[in-house]
């Protein structure tokens, strides 16, 4: 973690503020790729993840945008109500679980609401590199759509289409049949992403062409744990019982075994841990279906076990 200063705070849309972050000495920040996010440390030990939405070619600043959630757990309300220009924030270096596919010959970006944030960064990078792309942005109304001035200006305006409440948003027409080298990136509310991805699969798009970013764990992944199991540490042979009401991370942390964690919901990938034996009960939104089926990695912050014991490469 390192400290940055809030150098600008702007109201981008109803319920959405953007925050520009720079080093106090205005030195370069760690580089990032389009689609990356950062951890933001807030008072009371809160750690939240926010997508970087400025151009990756800007090394002097990071820009994040935060939607004020009605049922905020403290992150968005703190940033909206208590963080102002001139204040210091502690953040982590950028991490990317939603990267542009370098082999892609065409890129379709579909954003719903606050889901514009990582896709805006992608659009900047694709435009700068002269790539073939389209950005389709769906929001309830213009007042709920962030960064409209940026999207309406060069170089993004030629690639961007906007859709509001009474405008038909025909996903099937936008996607069309799958084409070799074409990749789809989607971010927004879970219902929006599910609709887009289900439509794509119905048209024959392969999972390898579909890429999504989640802001929160799905309800199914947050279901109560359904039993206890054992975890064995390969390097020491020590075995720990994981009760039904505790996570693997909690038990191992208590035993002095450190695993890096961030979101504690299986959406950031910070705690991905190699599995040597056993079959995990995957409850994350980080690993692809193919990666989950391979059972070589799992997220100890939220995932469980389908077998009596997991042997971890720790």
UniProtKB/TrEMBL annotation:
Keywords: 2Fe-2S, Flavoprotein, Iron, Iron-sulfur, Metal-binding, Oxidoreductase. Residues 229-314 form the 2Fe-2S ferredoxin-type domain. InterPro entries: 2Fe-2S_ferredoxin-like_sf, 2Fe-2S_ferredoxin-type, Beta-grasp_dom_sf, DmmA-like_N, FAD-bd_FR_type, FNR_nucleotide-bd, MRET, Riboflavin_synthase-like_b-brl. GO terms for molecular function: 2 iron, 2 sulfur cluster binding; metal ion binding; oxidoreductase activity. Residues 1-101 form the FAD-binding FR-type domain. It holds the Pfam family Fer2. Gene3D superfamilies: 3.10.20.30, Nucleotide-binding domain of ferredoxin-NADP reductase (FNR) module (3.40.50.80), Translation factors (2.40.30.10). The keyword DNA-binding does not apply. This is Oxidoreductase. It comes from Stutzerimonas kirkiae.
């Amino acid at each position: 973690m390192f400290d940055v200063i809030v150098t600008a705070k702007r109201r981008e849309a109803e319920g959405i503020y953007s925050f520009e972050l720079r080093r106090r000495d205005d030195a370069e920040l760690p580089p990032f790729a389009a689609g990356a996010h950062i951890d933001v440390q807030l008072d009371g030990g809160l750690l939240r993840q926010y997508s970087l939405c400025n151009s990756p070619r800007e090394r002097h600043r990071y820009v994040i945008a935060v939607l004020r959630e009605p049922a905020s757990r403290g992150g968005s309300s703190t940033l909206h109500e208590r963080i102002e220009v001139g204040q210091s924030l502690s953040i982590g270096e950028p991490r990317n679980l939603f990267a542009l596919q370098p082999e892609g010959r065409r890129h379709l970006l579909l954003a719903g609401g606050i889901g514009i944030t990582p896709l805006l960064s992608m659009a900047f990078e694709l435009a700068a590199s002269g790539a073939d792309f389209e950005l389709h942005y769906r929001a309830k109304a213009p007042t709920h759509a962030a960064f409209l001035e940026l999207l309406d200006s060069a170089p993004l305006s030629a690639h961007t289409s906007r859709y509001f409440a009474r405008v038909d948003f025909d996903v099937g027409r936008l996607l069309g049949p799958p084409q070799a080298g074409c990749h789809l990136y989607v971010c927004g509310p879970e219902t929006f992403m599910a609709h887009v991805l289900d439509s794509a699969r119905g048209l024959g798009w392969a999972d390898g062409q579909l890429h999504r970013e989640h802001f929160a764990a799905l309800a199914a992944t947050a279901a109560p744990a359904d039993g206890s199991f054992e975890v064995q540490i390969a390097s020491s042979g020590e075995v720990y019982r994981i009760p039904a009401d505790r996570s693997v991370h909690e038990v191992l942390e208590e035993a002095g075994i450190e695993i890096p964690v961030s979101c504690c919901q299986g959406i950031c990938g910070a705690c991905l841990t190699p599995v040597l034996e056993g079959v995990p009960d995957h409850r994350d939104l980080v690993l692809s279906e193919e990666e989950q089926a391979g059972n070589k990695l799992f997220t100890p912050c939220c995932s469980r076990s389908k077998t009596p014991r997991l042997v971890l490469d720790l």
